[in-house]
Amino acid sequence: MSWLVDPFADFAFMQRALLGCLAISLGATPVGVFLLLRRMSLTGDAMAHAILPGAAVGYLVAGLNLGAMTLGGVMAGLVVAVLTGAVARFTSLREDASLAAFYLISLALGVLLVSLKGSNVDLMHVLFGTVLALDDAALTLLCAITTFTLVTLALIFRPLVLECADPRFLASVSRWSGPVHFLFLGLVVLNLVAGFQALGTLMAVGIMILPAAAARFWANSIGGMLAVAAAIAAASSVAGLLASFHAGLPSGPAIILAAGTLYLLSLAFGPSGSLAARYWPRAHLEA
Amino acid sequence: MALRIRDLTLGYDRHPAVHHLDLDLATGSLTAIVGPNGAGKSTLLKGLTGELPPLEGRIDRGAARLAYLPQLSEVDRSFPLAVGAFVAMGLWHRVGAFGRVRGKDAMRVGEALAAVGLTGFDRRPISALSGGQMQRVMFARLLLQDAELILLDEPFTALDTKTAADLLAVVQRWHGEGRTVLAVLHDMEAVRRHFPETLLLAREKVAHGATDTVLTAENLFRARQMSEAFDDSANLCARGAA
Asked: Chain B contact for A169, CB < 8 A?
């Protein structure tokens, strides 16, 4: 058992990494569950790319400064989210097409800005994260974003569920439809920014979507899915960090691969809608 | 008066689907909307809910609470939601985004499910329902909405006789309670038998009034003559420019 506990007991950087990853697991996975249920799984990926120019501007202006890069990332993400949502609501273009257009523009801008400063090792941190070197400011930011996310989700839970399940009905009984949509996109951006501190812009989406996709094979209710997804994300974080510690693997990809393994296992053996449930069904009932 | 419509034109890309319609509906009336495909029946309901802003004219429905059953429901049937929770959202006007569904309201959910013949279905996921059962669920939610003006777009299409009869009984219960009901229907026999008033629509109003005076052979023939005109080179409507 010591290999399981000792790395976290003996090394402060492992404790910080664990805290950071658990914070992300709690905040990003519920957002991922709703992305999945709204059939917007790839939106997270597109958003992660959209954030890049903002982080790059922050980096160009202030160097490898957490505050500047976070602010830049959030601004870029929110601009793309608002433009995308507005185009989808007020023109005939669908949300996926409008998001694709804006994130590609944003990504090109980001790559252009990054190349202005020439190649730099620090920038690799933005792309691939620094979960083993989280400082106090980064940890505080991660925990603050998770807290904000959970409180906001609790407040908008009912309108958000209805906006996913029956948007036309929500629009007919209340004015929540627009606000809840934009609030939710805001949470997506915030959690991606939180994720890129630890896992990098490319990996942040993984901890958001993989546990949510896995949870669909275990639960038939939203509450169940949220709980399972958070548990899978937390387990993947622990497993990934341990693999990283013992085998000297890069931590970000190790965590995402752990989540990916759990996803594949769920896909094969989960009780609801999995391959096993389809091809080896349990005995059926009388009525 | 539950509904006053004056000179209403609704349409898509400047082409009118409902053209210069005047209509008054008395409070508590039970009215069928009939007409050929493309006559603007669904468009009229979308205009009444506010989903489609008018190109011209006015709709005055006072402060009446409105409930609407669309023809093509946009419910995501794969969403992991139980029947009970889905139906309970008909209580939105009472509980809003934050209120709890408890006590009397929770009982109402059970009563609504019983009224549409789905007692015991409250914990079943909506993904496990048949088409007819889902339509019963939609009616249960409408029941809870406790609306004064109820708009139904082809509510009995593709239902078996038993289900259609059960849901028609719900409509008649609303009529008995003094609610104003407006329903798009294609089954003329059912309209003649159960709907006191009828609006015959073919982009323009062909006739409105007591059902047996509206559904005459002559009126139905006139409705069929008014074709589904969507002419790309149509002239500007002279009545609109005035």
From this structure: yes
Q: How far apart are CA A131 and CA A199, in angstroms?
A: 6
The pLDDT assigned to A284 comes to 84
Buried b (16+ CB within 10 A) or exposed e, A229-258: bbbbbbebbbbbbbbbbeeebebbbbbbbb
What does the block give as tokens for A166? 């029956």
The residue-averaged pLDDT of B75-98 equals: 91
Domains in chain A: ranges and CATH: 2-279 (1.10.3470.10)
Considering CB atoms only, which of A169, A222, A225 is closest to B89? A169
What average pLDDT is seen over chain A? Answer: 88
For residue B161, how many other CB atoms are within 10 A of its CB? 8
Task: Over range A4-29, report the average pLDDT.
Answer: 91
Domains of chain B, by residue range, sit at 1-64+148-242, 73-146
**If one looks up domain B1-64+148-242 in CATH, what number appears?**
3.40.50.300
Q: Using CB atoms, pick whichever of B51, B81, B92 lies closest to residue A174.
A: B92
Which class for B158: exposed (0-12), middle (13-18), buried (19 or more C-beta within 10 A)? exposed
pLDDT of residue B241: 47
DSSP H stretches of helix in chain A: 2-10, 12-37, 41-62, 66-90, 95-116, 121-128, 136-165, 167-173, 177-198, 201-215, 222-247, 251-269, 275-279
Q: Average pLDDT of B89-115?
A: 90
Best residue in A33, A92, A158 for a mutation probing chain B (most B CBs within 10 Å): A158
Contact B223, B36 (CB under 8 A): yes
**Average of per-residue pLDDT across B88-97:** 90
Axis crossing angle, helix A66-90 with helix A41-62, rounded to the nearest 10? 140
Q: Which residue of B has its CA nearest to A165?
A: B76
Lowest mean pLDDT among A53-67, A122-136, B32-46, B156-170: A122-136
Cα separation of A229 and B13, whole Å? 45
- DSSP string computed for A226-265: HHHHHHHHHHHHHHHHHHHHHH---HHHHHHHHHHHHHHH
